[in-house]
Design goal:
Number of domains: 1
Number of helices: 7
Strand content: under 5%
Order of helices and strands: HHHHHHH
Largest sheet: none
Helix content: over 70%
Radius of gyration: 25 Å
Shape: elongated
Distance between the termini: 71 Å
């Protein structure tokens, strides 16, 4: 009975990590593309575009890592607090907690006798794990690591950001903006499709939203760059 639950939990966590990675890469693509296209609208100097692009990648990756670390650390602290509360209740009111666990299994469809037997066996095996999983939806042995989440977000953002940066640097000045826009649109379509499929949502609307948002961001920043470049120049 425990193996399918562990398998489902592990699969759900892997899908959650994969969705986070796709969204992180998507953020890297959009934010970096907006900056380098905006700078390209102001100047054709490859050096200026390189500096702006690298700064955008480094700042964005560090920001993503810091934000994810803080977010996951807060979640982990909350989970630990809930687990400490559950440990205290199990220590002080074991019979009440056993009845509470059995009642939850009854709500899930087991008859009263079977629910009590399951609750008793699971409590005897690992009381905290049994109660935390059903009552709190937490696996005490598998709390998310803030450092792992931070590194994953930073890597995903960086990989996504490299696409527009390398594209706009490697393509000659005459076609760099058009080629970058096309490459970014294709990448955003791919990330939109992937995130939709991972979330079991219709991919068409997700792709359209993703691509439209990216094109809008690049269009606005290019227009701003063009205006500022003309006035400053």
């Amino acid at each position: 009975m425990s193996e399918p639950a562990e398998h489902t939990s592990g699969l759900s966590q892997r899908l959650s990590w994969l969705r986070a990675a796709v969204l992180g890469a998507n953020d890297g693509i959009v934010s970096t593309a907006g900056i380098v296209v905006g700078v390209a609208g102001a100047t054709t100097d490859r050096g200026a575009i390189l500096v702006a692009g690298v700064a955008a990648v480094v700042a964005g990756a560090l920001s993503m890592a810091a934000g994810e670390y803080v977010s996951v650390s807060t979640q982990r602290d909350s989970e630990r607090a809930l687990l400490r509360t559950e440990e205290r209740e199990l220590r002080e009111e074991p019979e009440h907690e056993l009845e509470e666990l059995a009642a939850m299994y009854v709500e899930r469809g087991l008859d009263d006798d079977l629910a009590h037997r399951v609750a008793r066996q699971l409590t005897d095996h690992d009381a905290l794990a049994a109660h935390a999983e059903v009552e709190l939806g937490i696996d005490p042995a598998d709390l998310t690591s803030p450092w792992r989440a931070a590194v994953a977000s930073m890597v995903a953002f960086t990989l996504g950001a490299l696409l527009p940066l390398l594209t706009i640097l490697l393509v000659p000045a005459g076609g760099r903006v058009v080629v970058t826009v096309v490459a970014v649109a294709a990448a955003l379509a791919a990330t939109g499709f992937t995130s939709a499929r991972l979330g079991y949502a219709p991919p068409g609307r997700a792709v359209l939203r993703n691509v439209s948002g990216g094109l809008l961001a690049m269009g606005v920043t290019y227009a701003v760059g063009s205006v500022l470049g003309t006035r400053v120049g």
